[in-house]
Specification:
By secondary structure, the chain is of the alpha/beta class. Helices cover about 40% and strands about 20% of the residues. It folds into two domains: about 200 residues, Glycogen Phosphorylase B (Rossmann fold); about 160 residues, Rossmann fold.
């Protein structure tokens, strides 16, 4: 039997291991026997993913960057490569949201390929953070209109939670939408039995560790965490662990702190989570926040902003804590409370782990996505 030819498109790739790439890894691992999979990704590295039959690399621009990500170089060779990759498959599965994704959707529509888009981020909220305040509103609306235009050219839009589906309907998205939650490998992301040994494994001091996983960048609002950490008492007894990478100017601030470790992108995120006492997600815009789910799966108390799906799966003072956006003072107060109140910390930890174990499964999520993709293959 001939397998459906599936092209997975993304604007990120190794060594930039973010939530989108981790989803792709999990999807390919579970779908490689159901599809003939090829990739269309930026040429950051040539690392292979087991189960991928062919990879098309798109040359990045040397001068055009957004939050440390190099956008694609606008040249004939890249346009031709995208066109050829799209023409040779049955289904185009786009992760987005930047130039490679948008051009793939354009060519997919032109050549009447089935197109499914998974919304890992809200594009207009994400990119608007990088423009000067004077032009912010203009670009916010421009990117929103462009994104919705392309969404409506797809055959299906996958969203990670129900509320986002309702929001996109209000914004004018008319294409078919299905909810497919992200999942967690709860065996890999599990609570540590010995935190001192876990810290030793990743070479982190045996102190109270406040941690973060993700892009160290404006849209993730890591500046608020930086300022909150400096407000904490007993600094010599605390350590800030930043697992991720980002623009040099953002990273350098953290590296100058005496009691802070910045890891860069890593493949063993679970090992670093197990070295933490508390996890903070200060982001201004999120959909699901895979990093927060992984932290909860490791039994960490999480302190987050009330954005995206986090405001649904986190219940205040039950399996996590909220803090106001852009409020370093309130964040520092919340961190101090969690670190000082062992009983409260234990309660959050137990309930966080239960939430993930009961409600988030890669198998359930990816099986649903596979069924939807196969549906479109047989309804061409």
């Amino acid at each position: 039997m001939t397998l459906p030819k599936l092209l997975i498109v993304a604007d990120t790739y190794y060594p930039k291991v973010d939530g989108t790439l981790r989803f792709m890894e999990e999807f390919i691992k579970r779908a490689k026997d159901d599809f003939a999979i090829s990739l269309l990704v930026p040429n950051y590295s040539h690392k292979k993913i087991d189960g991928v039959q062919n990879t098309t690399y798109i040359s990045p621009s040397k001068i055009w960057k957004v939050s440390g990500y190099q956008n694609m170089k606008l040249c004939r060779k890249n346009f031709q490569a995208i066109k050829s990759a799209v023409k040779g498959v049955d289904i185009v599965f786009v992760q987005g949201p930047a130039m490679i994704s948008y051009l793939s959707m354009y060519y997919s529509s032109k050549y009447q390929k089935k197109t499914v888009f998974y919304t890992h981020t809200i594009a207009w909220e994400l990119f608007a953070k990088f423009f000067p305040p004077l032009f912010n509103k203009i670009f916010f609306n421009l990117i929103k209109r462009l994104s919705i235009f392309f969404y409506n050219r797809c055959d299906e839009l996958l969203v990670p939670y129900h509320e986002l589906k309702n929001e996109l309907l209000k914004e004018g998205v008319k294409t078919r939408m299905s909810v497919a939650k992200l999942g967690i490998d709860i065996d890999l992301f599990s609570p540590t039995k010995e935190i001192t040994a876990s810290r030793k494994k990743v070479k982190i001091p045996d102190k109270s560790v406040i941690g973060y996983v993700g892009r160290i960048s404006k849209e993730k609002n890591t500046q608020t965490l930086y300022e909150a950490f400096k407000k904490l008492s007993d600094q010599e007894d605390k350590h800030l662990l930043m697992v991720g990478d980002g623009p040099k100017d953002q990273i350098d601030k953290f590296k100058k702190l005496n009691n802070c470790t910045v890891t860069g992108f890593v493949n063993n995120v679970h090992d670093y989570l197990k070295a933490m006492d508390v996890f903070v997600m200060p982001s201004l815009t999120e959909t699901t926040s895979l990093a927060t789910l992984e932290a909860m799966s490791c039994g960490l108390p999480v302190i987050v902003t009330k954005v995206g799906f986090m405001k649904t799966y986190i219940s205040k003072n039950h399996n996590g804590i909220f803090f106001p956006k852009n409020s370093p003072t309130m964040l520092s107060v919340k961190i101090e409370r969690v670190l000082k109140d062992a009983e409260f910390r234990h309660k959050l930890s137990i309930n966080a782990r239960k939430t993930i174990a009961y409600s988030f499964s890669w198998e359930r999520s990816i099986n649903k996505i596979k069924r939807l993709l196969i549906y479109h293959y047989f309804n061409q």
